[in-house]
Amino acid sequence: MNQPLHVHPDALSLQQLMVLEGIACRLARKYPPDWLERQGRPLYLATVATSFLTAVVLGLAWGPWWGFLVPLCMPTCVLVLLPRLLFGRVTGRPRWAHPLARLDWQDAELLRRVLASSEYRPTVSGEEFFAIWCRAYRGLSYRHG
Q: Residue 90: helix, strand or coil by DSSP?
């Protein structure tokens, strides 16, 4: 089984972070944002407003207290569970942060050199790269925080 690539956030310099950012930009061009990513904030606000109004209408028209639970679970179902079940997407992540998105061999080799990884990995998924990218930026904010 493939072992994940490890990154030590304290060991990454600003130049290495810029290389990671370049890889992320190339992945974003290869896998452009889809409708869910582009409409994330308005969709979230519309879903929350609709669920709140539905809860109020159900509460006024129908007496049982558990009638409120159905519409209040709607944002989670629509925005988290539905994209996960239909597309395998985690809400809030870019489209390229998916297990089926792959770095090309040049970017995978560049990533191995930047991280000074001795492991040989012929392919690196977008999901693995996203985890490395997030840890690197968390380490940067930790150092400067």
A: coil
Of all helices (H) and strands (E), which one includes residue 124?
none
For the chain, the maximum distance between any two Cα atoms, rounded to a whole number of angstroms, is 64
Which letter does DSSP use for residue 93 in this model?
S
User: What's the token pair of residue 143?
Assistant: 């150092």
Structure tokens at 45: 């606000």
Q: Which helix (H) or strand (E) holds 123?
A: none
At 81-126, the pLDDT tens digits run 888 888 777 877 888 888 888 899 898 888 888 887 655 566 688 8
Distance CA 131, CA 16 (A): 15
First and final CA of the chain: distance in angstroms? 37
Contact 107, 92 (CB under 8 A): no
User: How many residues make up the chain in this entry?
Assistant: 145
Q: Where does residue 116 fall: left (phi above 0), alpha (psi -120 to 50 degrees), or beta otherwise? A: left
Question: Contact at 8 Å (CB) between 87 and 116?
Answer: no
Contact in structure between 5 and 117 (CB atoms under 8 Å): yes
pTM of the complete model: 0.67
